[in-house]
Design goal:
The protein has 263 residues and is an alpha/beta fold. It is built from four helices and 27 strands.
Length: 263
Protein backbone atom coordinates (compact mmCIF):
# COMPACT_ATOMS: atom_id res chain seq x y z
CA UNK A 1 0.00 0.00 0.00
CA UNK A 2 1.37 3.43 -0.94
CA UNK A 3 2.10 6.13 1.59
CA UNK A 4 -0.79 8.40 2.61
CA UNK A 5 0.72 11.87 2.29
CA UNK A 6 -1.43 14.94 2.93
CA UNK A 7 -1.20 17.45 0.07
CA UNK A 8 -0.11 20.14 2.52
CA UNK A 9 2.87 18.09 3.77
CA UNK A 10 6.35 18.80 2.38
CA UNK A 11 7.97 15.46 1.52
CA UNK A 12 11.13 15.24 -0.54
CA UNK A 13 11.00 12.97 -3.56
CA UNK A 14 14.42 11.70 -2.42
CA UNK A 15 13.13 10.45 0.94
CA UNK A 16 12.80 6.66 1.20
CA UNK A 17 9.36 5.77 2.53
CA UNK A 18 8.05 2.36 3.56
CA UNK A 19 4.60 0.89 3.05
CA UNK A 20 1.47 2.28 4.71
CA UNK A 21 3.21 5.43 5.96
CA UNK A 22 0.92 8.31 7.00
CA UNK A 23 2.25 11.87 6.81
CA UNK A 24 -0.14 14.60 7.91
CA UNK A 25 -0.57 18.26 6.95
CA UNK A 26 2.39 20.62 7.36
CA UNK A 27 4.82 17.85 8.27
CA UNK A 28 8.28 18.10 6.66
CA UNK A 29 10.39 15.18 5.45
CA UNK A 30 13.80 16.15 4.07
CA UNK A 31 15.93 14.47 1.40
CA UNK A 32 18.14 12.07 3.36
CA UNK A 33 15.42 10.35 5.38
CA UNK A 34 14.41 6.70 5.70
CA UNK A 35 10.99 6.03 7.19
CA UNK A 36 9.87 2.43 7.78
CA UNK A 37 6.54 0.72 7.23
CA UNK A 38 3.42 1.76 9.17
CA UNK A 39 4.88 4.95 10.62
CA UNK A 40 2.67 7.95 11.40
CA UNK A 41 4.07 11.49 11.17
CA UNK A 42 1.78 14.08 12.73
CA UNK A 43 1.24 17.67 11.61
CA UNK A 44 4.20 20.05 11.95
CA UNK A 45 6.65 17.25 12.75
CA UNK A 46 10.01 17.46 10.96
CA UNK A 47 12.22 14.57 9.87
CA UNK A 48 15.58 16.07 8.98
CA UNK A 49 18.50 14.73 6.96
CA UNK A 50 20.07 11.69 8.60
CA UNK A 51 16.84 10.33 10.09
CA UNK A 52 16.75 6.52 9.92
CA UNK A 53 13.42 5.50 11.38
CA UNK A 54 12.28 1.87 11.66
CA UNK A 55 8.78 0.41 11.48
CA UNK A 56 5.59 1.38 13.27
CA UNK A 57 6.87 4.55 14.90
CA UNK A 58 4.60 7.41 15.92
CA UNK A 59 6.12 10.88 15.42
CA UNK A 60 3.98 13.35 17.34
CA UNK A 61 2.89 16.89 16.62
CA UNK A 62 5.84 19.27 16.30
CA UNK A 63 8.48 16.62 17.02
CA UNK A 64 11.90 16.98 15.35
CA UNK A 65 13.83 13.84 14.45
CA UNK A 66 17.53 14.10 13.48
CA UNK A 67 17.94 17.80 14.18
CA UNK A 68 21.51 19.13 14.02
CA UNK A 69 23.59 18.64 17.19
CA UNK A 70 23.79 21.44 19.72
CA UNK A 71 27.58 21.14 19.70
CA UNK A 72 29.84 23.99 18.61
CA UNK A 73 32.29 21.50 17.07
CA UNK A 74 29.67 20.29 14.60
CA UNK A 75 30.34 21.56 11.07
CA UNK A 76 27.41 19.98 9.25
CA UNK A 77 29.14 16.62 8.76
CA UNK A 78 26.75 13.92 7.45
CA UNK A 79 25.64 11.97 10.52
CA UNK A 80 22.52 10.04 11.50
CA UNK A 81 19.82 9.55 14.11
CA UNK A 82 18.95 5.84 14.03
CA UNK A 83 15.66 4.71 15.55
CA UNK A 84 14.29 1.18 15.96
CA UNK A 85 10.68 -0.01 15.78
CA UNK A 86 7.44 0.59 17.69
CA UNK A 87 8.39 3.83 19.43
CA UNK A 88 6.11 6.71 20.35
CA UNK A 89 7.56 10.23 20.25
CA UNK A 90 4.97 12.61 21.62
CA UNK A 91 4.52 16.33 21.13
CA UNK A 92 7.64 18.40 20.50
CA UNK A 93 10.21 15.69 21.20
CA UNK A 94 13.66 16.49 19.82
CA UNK A 95 16.05 13.71 18.83
CA UNK A 96 19.36 15.02 17.48
CA UNK A 97 21.73 13.28 15.10
CA UNK A 98 25.34 12.48 16.03
CA UNK A 99 28.55 14.44 15.68
CA UNK A 100 31.78 13.31 14.08
CA UNK A 101 32.75 11.87 17.49
CA UNK A 102 30.58 8.77 16.91
CA UNK A 103 28.65 9.59 13.75
CA UNK A 104 25.23 8.72 15.10
CA UNK A 105 22.63 8.87 17.80
CA UNK A 106 20.94 5.50 18.40
CA UNK A 107 17.51 4.90 19.93
CA UNK A 108 16.18 1.34 20.32
CA UNK A 109 12.69 -0.12 19.99
CA UNK A 110 9.43 -0.06 21.99
CA UNK A 111 10.23 3.22 23.70
CA UNK A 112 7.73 5.80 24.97
CA UNK A 113 9.04 9.35 24.88
CA UNK A 114 6.56 11.78 26.41
CA UNK A 115 6.11 15.41 25.40
CA UNK A 116 9.17 17.68 25.16
CA UNK A 117 11.73 14.95 25.79
CA UNK A 118 15.17 15.57 24.32
CA UNK A 119 17.86 13.11 23.27
CA UNK A 120 21.07 14.90 22.37
CA UNK A 121 23.83 14.03 19.93
CA UNK A 122 25.73 10.73 20.16
CA UNK A 123 23.42 9.22 22.78
CA UNK A 124 22.69 5.49 22.95
CA UNK A 125 19.22 4.62 24.26
CA UNK A 126 18.11 1.01 24.74
CA UNK A 127 14.82 -0.81 24.22
CA UNK A 128 11.57 -0.54 26.20
CA UNK A 129 12.45 2.74 27.88
CA UNK A 130 10.00 5.32 29.20
CA UNK A 131 11.00 8.98 29.41
CA UNK A 132 8.38 11.16 31.10
CA UNK A 133 7.70 14.76 30.07
CA UNK A 134 10.70 17.06 29.66
CA UNK A 135 13.44 14.49 30.30
CA UNK A 136 16.60 15.89 28.70
CA UNK A 137 19.68 13.81 27.88
CA UNK A 138 22.96 15.64 27.31
CA UNK A 139 25.36 14.50 24.63
CA UNK A 140 26.91 11.01 24.71
CA UNK A 141 24.55 9.71 27.41
CA UNK A 142 23.94 5.93 27.44
CA UNK A 143 20.64 4.54 28.76
CA UNK A 144 20.01 0.81 29.18
CA UNK A 145 16.96 -1.33 28.45
CA UNK A 146 13.73 -0.96 30.46
CA UNK A 147 14.92 2.26 32.07
CA UNK A 148 12.32 4.72 33.37
CA UNK A 149 13.22 8.38 33.91
CA UNK A 150 10.76 10.68 35.67
CA UNK A 151 9.66 14.01 34.26
CA UNK A 152 11.71 17.22 34.31
CA UNK A 153 14.94 15.29 34.85
CA UNK A 154 18.14 16.42 33.10
CA UNK A 155 20.97 13.94 32.55
CA UNK A 156 24.50 15.34 32.36
CA UNK A 157 26.52 14.61 29.24
CA UNK A 158 28.52 11.35 29.21
CA UNK A 159 26.50 9.82 32.06
CA UNK A 160 25.44 6.19 31.88
CA UNK A 161 22.17 4.77 33.18
CA UNK A 162 21.93 1.00 33.54
CA UNK A 163 19.25 -1.51 32.62
CA UNK A 164 15.96 -1.54 34.55
CA UNK A 165 16.68 1.63 36.47
CA UNK A 166 13.90 3.85 37.76
CA UNK A 167 14.81 7.50 38.40
CA UNK A 168 12.38 9.85 40.12
CA UNK A 169 11.08 13.07 38.58
CA UNK A 170 12.49 16.57 38.93
CA UNK A 171 15.99 15.33 39.77
CA UNK A 172 19.48 15.85 38.31
CA UNK A 173 21.62 12.99 37.07
CA UNK A 174 25.29 13.96 37.22
CA UNK A 175 26.86 10.55 37.94
CA UNK A 176 26.37 7.07 36.51
CA UNK A 177 23.37 5.11 37.76
CA UNK A 178 24.00 1.34 38.15
CA UNK A 179 21.50 -1.17 36.74
CA UNK A 180 18.46 -2.61 38.55
CA UNK A 181 17.99 0.17 41.10
CA UNK A 182 15.72 2.97 42.25
CA UNK A 183 17.40 6.37 42.33
CA UNK A 184 16.00 9.49 43.98
CA UNK A 185 16.79 12.46 46.18
CA UNK A 186 18.89 15.57 45.75
CA UNK A 187 21.70 14.91 45.12
CA UNK A 188 20.70 11.68 43.40
CA UNK A 189 21.34 8.54 45.49
CA UNK A 190 20.77 4.78 45.47
CA UNK A 191 17.50 4.01 47.27
CA UNK A 192 17.29 0.24 46.80
CA UNK A 193 16.50 -2.29 44.10
CA UNK A 194 13.82 -1.70 41.48
CA UNK A 195 11.93 -4.70 42.85
CA UNK A 196 8.72 -4.13 40.92
CA UNK A 197 10.62 -3.81 37.65
CA UNK A 198 12.68 -6.93 38.31
CA UNK A 199 9.59 -8.98 39.18
CA UNK A 200 7.83 -7.76 36.06
CA UNK A 201 10.81 -8.91 34.01
CA UNK A 202 10.49 -12.39 35.50
CA UNK A 203 13.40 -12.41 37.95
CA UNK A 204 13.09 -15.17 40.54
CA UNK A 205 13.06 -14.45 44.27
CA UNK A 206 16.41 -16.24 44.62
CA UNK A 207 18.07 -14.17 41.91
CA UNK A 208 16.68 -10.94 43.33
CA UNK A 209 18.19 -11.88 46.70
CA UNK A 210 21.57 -12.47 45.04
CA UNK A 211 21.44 -9.08 43.31
CA UNK A 212 20.45 -7.48 46.61
CA UNK A 213 23.42 -9.09 48.36
CA UNK A 214 25.76 -7.69 45.71
CA UNK A 215 24.43 -4.18 46.20
CA UNK A 216 24.76 -4.58 49.96
CA UNK A 217 28.49 -5.19 49.45
CA UNK A 218 28.78 -2.34 46.95
CA UNK A 219 27.00 0.28 49.00
CA UNK A 220 26.93 -0.86 52.63
CA UNK A 221 29.92 -3.14 53.05
CA UNK A 222 32.21 -0.51 54.53
CA UNK A 223 34.35 -0.48 51.37
CA UNK A 224 35.07 2.09 48.71
CA UNK A 225 33.72 1.23 45.27
CA UNK A 226 37.03 -0.14 43.96
CA UNK A 227 37.38 -2.40 47.00
CA UNK A 228 33.75 -3.47 46.69
CA UNK A 229 34.28 -4.52 43.07
CA UNK A 230 37.27 -6.63 44.10
CA UNK A 231 35.16 -8.25 46.80
CA UNK A 232 32.36 -9.00 44.33
CA UNK A 233 34.84 -10.52 41.90
CA UNK A 234 36.30 -12.73 44.65
CA UNK A 235 32.87 -14.19 45.36
CA UNK A 236 32.58 -15.53 41.80
CA UNK A 237 28.91 -14.73 41.29
CA UNK A 238 27.66 -16.60 38.21
CA UNK A 239 24.48 -14.57 37.78
CA UNK A 240 24.83 -12.50 34.57
CA UNK A 241 23.16 -9.49 36.17
CA UNK A 242 25.82 -9.32 38.87
CA UNK A 243 28.54 -9.61 36.26
CA UNK A 244 26.83 -6.74 34.44
CA UNK A 245 26.86 -4.69 37.66
CA UNK A 246 30.57 -5.35 38.19
CA UNK A 247 31.38 -4.36 34.62
CA UNK A 248 29.24 -1.21 34.91
CA UNK A 249 31.08 0.01 38.01
CA UNK A 250 34.52 -0.84 36.61
CA UNK A 251 33.80 0.99 33.36
CA UNK A 252 32.29 4.08 34.96
CA UNK A 253 34.11 7.29 34.06
CA UNK A 254 32.00 9.77 36.02
CA UNK A 255 31.66 7.58 39.11
CA UNK A 256 28.44 6.01 40.34
CA UNK A 257 25.83 7.65 42.52
CA UNK A 258 26.26 7.18 46.29
CA UNK A 259 23.87 5.57 48.75
CA UNK A 260 21.50 7.46 50.99
CA UNK A 261 22.79 5.36 53.88
CA UNK A 262 26.28 5.89 55.28
CA UNK A 263 28.67 3.04 54.56
Amino acid sequence: MAADIHPLASVSSKARLGERVTIKAFAVVQDDVELGDDCVVESHAVLMDGARVGKNNYIGYGAVISGPPQDISYKNEPTTCEIGDNNSFREYCTMHRGTKATGKTVIGSNGFFMAYTHVAHDCRVGDNVIFANCVALGGHVHVGNYAFIGGLTPVHQFCKIGDQVMIGGGLRVTKDVPPFILAGGTPLVFEGLNLIGLRRRGFSHANIELIESAFEILYHGGLNFSQAVLELEKRNYELPEIQKLIAFVKESKRGIIPSWKPK
